Amino acid sequence: MKHPLADQFDGAAQILAEIDSRIPDTRDYRAETRATVDTYHPKRLQLVVAEIIDETATTKTFRLAGRDQVELPPFLAGQYVNVFIDGTSRPYAISSTPTQLDRYDLTVRRVPGGRVSNLLIDSAQIGQVLPTTGPMGTFHHNPLFHGDDVVFLAGGSGVVPAMSMIREIVDRDPDRTFHLIYGSRYASDVIFRAELDELAAQHPGITVDHVIAEPDADWTGATGFLTAGTIKALVGDLDGRMVYVCGPQALYPYALEQLTVLGHPRKRIRFEANGAPSDPTAQPHWPTGVDPTDEVTVTVGDTSFRTPRNRPLLDALEDNGIRPEAACRSGECSLCRVRIVKGEVHTAEEAKLRLSDNRFGYTHSCVAYPIGDVELDL
Known about the structure:
By secondary structure, this protein is an alpha/beta fold. Helix content is about 25%, strand content about 30%.
């Protein structure tokens, strides 16, 4: 359609004639854009277990490949995918390097009583198809903001994202320096020990220090916990370097306390989101006098069910066949966000809520606990 002001411009007739003579563009840009988004940010992947690698007595790496053998979506070292299995899901960090997109390696440690970790370790087989999300998560290295000289405090399976970062340094960035301080209970618990020690010996920019809490008689390295004194002895002055922390939940407040003793600023510490709180009642805003084991009624649409107060809403919903979208299960990604229509919930400190969520009654169901009878809108 000709614009009503077109005739006011010199040469408008010739330009309009040239436009009219063009071959119509019939490309479906909407479909092309959708295909690009789906390639790099898929909602679901169908990945095949191509190999299972025994790492320690309690840990295995599951090497997952695409069913069609094409490159998988790119990821940043430190990110995770969420694995869907047995009516629920769990996020697992990718331990492989982002330079090799023919696979994602997920390194899983057995959790006592853990529903998904035990199922994978005991039952997963080569050739099995595992649905996952695409890669996601904010716990990754950004050289612009984090610098090229970083320290990583890892506990247990918290070494997994560090392994991906180290492998990427080996493949891409020999000038970047990375100091891993890795705490384990026993020397036999150390995941990737041989590879970590070999890479540290071969690459001057990579330093790996193991700290064993309960050493045997043959151990000659650092012992105990990741105290301020141990960090100082191994790293020296932190000098404002970015410090990553990943491990069991108990490590996070402890590591923050030790780094604060060293005078390290909070803005230079990055914590990986790592699950719902083990005991929500220990948080100061849990209501006084409320028994966490008592059951309440949760209603979603025409469905109602009973659940204990101390069970996360997301878990309770999945137990009853209601499966909201989910990924991090740690209060960060917001995919499991629900609206509380009636009733009260305890939203754990781990929830990264929007500023408007409290105003409009939203919470993250993975770290929310029903205090009384509640009605939800999904």
